[in-house]
Amino acid sequence: MDPKSISPELSVSPQITPADIPALAEQGFRSIVCNRPDGEGMDQPTFEEIEAAAKVAGIEARYLPIEQGKVTDADAAEFGKLLTWLPGPTLAYCRSGTRSATLWSLSVAKTKPTSDILAATKAAGYDMGGVVRRIVNGGTTPLDQGDASFDIVIIGGGAAGISVAASLQARQTGAEIAIIDPADIHYYQPGWTMVGGGIFDAKTTARTMGSLIPKGVHWIKAALAAFEPQHNAVILDGCRVVKYGRLVVCPGIKLDWHGVEGLVDTLGKNAVTSNYRYDLAPYTWKLVQELKSGRALFTQPPMPIKCAGAPQKAMYLSADHWFRSGVLKDIKIGFHNAGGVLFGVKDYVPALMEYVEKYDARLNFFNNLVAVDGPAKKAWFDVAKPDAPVERVEVAFDMMHVCPPQTAPDFIRVSPLADAAGWVDVDQATLRHKTYDNIWSLGDVMNAPNAKTAAAARKQAPVVAENIVADITGKSPVAQYDGYGSCPLTVERGKIVLAEFGYGGTLKPSFPKWLVDGTKPTRTAWLLKEQILPPVYWLAMLRGKEWMAKPEAVAAN
To answer: What InterPro entries has UniProt attached to this entry (predicted)?
Structure first.
């Protein structure tokens, strides 16, 4: 007997015996619900025996028997009523606990998000994949599923999703392709660092989604609720079902603003900002211009995050403005990084350290932002240095730029596609799912150990496209991804350290060293970032024109 909590009010377990009742009473359970019919197993105690033992222990017991595999909508409704009436906490049991977990999932489907239900049951060891459509449908059996079907379905209309759609269209004439994304606006997120530095206007980084979806690709403007890979289907909010021949998963990454106590309440005011949001990047520049003295903090959460250099880019561009304005001497800069190094690829660190020293910035490693009090201008960091107890420290500020904690989207983390850490589980070379042969993933959401950048997605899109086309024609994967990522580190206005690297930190320069030496700050790299990359993004990458992104062939065995 091992009760698993799935909510504050309910735990579920496999079959219990009368001898277990005293221990359950000691654990604080005040009621029991039996969901296993009497006589289902030869060694199974009857409900009458359970009820008698529960009565002695002062626990209420109820009998709601469910035939295995046949949980009806009425059963779920009755279970919900029992949980309302009975004193809690409650233990529900059946042979394995699955029927009880299913009853709970359906009974709360109208009041809890699907992702929360799936996360709770998954954590307890129960897979609700078989009833996910009913959960999405508010706990009732869908009567009209309204299925649509496409050759290729792409989840996400960001840089990765639109690029791979365009690359597929160029290779597979006549394929029925659909992109599922609820957003009206598509953003060029690499430009937000430049907005926060006063170089770009925020409006130039946004375009309507409809103007970017490749002609001939269907756009399903809806949010995804769940996956049914065993049925080659995805379920949308509202329980609409879309079936696919092949699936590409690239919804991006979740910015967990709520992961820092007090952060949501103070963002965009009290001198707390972030270039990770379109509406806040202009506020960053406003704060930078206004600050003449005091302490400026820049934070970086634990990895993985998208564009790992962005937190320090904000610091460099801000410091450069203060340097040029003659006020840097009156501003104390602190970079609080949850990690233990300035940048993950050591070849670029010497050049970056020159600017850290130029701007007299204090590096605080193993510092993870956990709370903010905007009106009081105070922040708290958990300092977790190796072989030392975690210490919470308080730091005052006059301006703070925050990079939020980041995770895979909720509907990914609770899905059958995810690894133990919640990311889509792919082969890092072919980007094909390790379990489901007709699913691929790219962009920030998958678990290959590469930098999560738009430059990485630019290289991944042709790999996925070529391998899907090969699969359609019955061939093995033909293209492989080498882990390429690029991070143009804007160390000052007019100069950039162009970090380009692949798996294992191997340098992957795109240009000859005489033109751009990526380990040094150069004007050429700045021109690339400021003038060349934006049109390449809008006019080439999102249109399937794979400039300098030709896929590498799979090595022969």
So the answer is: BLH_phosphatase-like, FAD/NAD-bd_sf, FAD/NAD-binding_dom, Prot-tyrosine_phosphatase-like, Sulphide_quinone_reductase
